[in-house]
Amino acid sequence: MPLPALPIEPVSFQQERQVMNPQQQQQRSAQLREKRSRRDFLMFIKVLLKCIEQSKDHYKLSIQAKALVAECIKRNRMGDPHFSPLQENVELRLRGLVGPVMFNKAMDMMDRFQATKLQRGVQQMRQMQRQLQMAQPPAATATAGSGSSGY
Question: Rounded to two decimals, what is the model's pTM?
Fold first, then answer.
């Protein structure tokens, strides 16, 4: 016999923050920063691989870079202390493989990408604010006189 479904009320972000104590809030913030940092680093690796593909020696270097990243991930998952923390080790080894010129070029491209992404977000926020302002009913206009009904 199936169990009856329990009503689940959605918890808003504000409600979640009110329930958490300050230490839990700090842990949650750190987790979100780390997740964002990890996502940004993965994006950087993709940008770096694009830079490699645009270079004249792209085929061999691209294969080496992908193998290097895979090897670092594998060794980190096996618990090798020389490959922890993973991001720092991958970055250090990729920088050594591709050289400082290409690595810095990829960093510049990543910075431009993030700036464009940020600007798009600002534009979307402004557009949403305009839509909200247009959706709000106009403020009640005052009638002529002192506001008394005249009775």
Answer: 0.59
